[in-house]
Amino acid sequence: MEISSTAFSSGERIPLRHSCQGPDVSPLLSWQGALAATRSFVLFCNDPDAS
Description:
Oligomer: single chain
Helix content: under 10%
Radius of gyration: 13 Å
Order of helices and strands: EE
Shape: elongated
């Protein structure tokens, strides 16, 4: 399964718009390759360096 976003590219820093240092707007996400029977997803992001 692959999750992607047009809000930023792979390896780039997440823009301030999508962080607690900005307005904290959730980026749009898309995915492909999930099993047909999949009913929901959970995405957990953790940045131990975030303040």
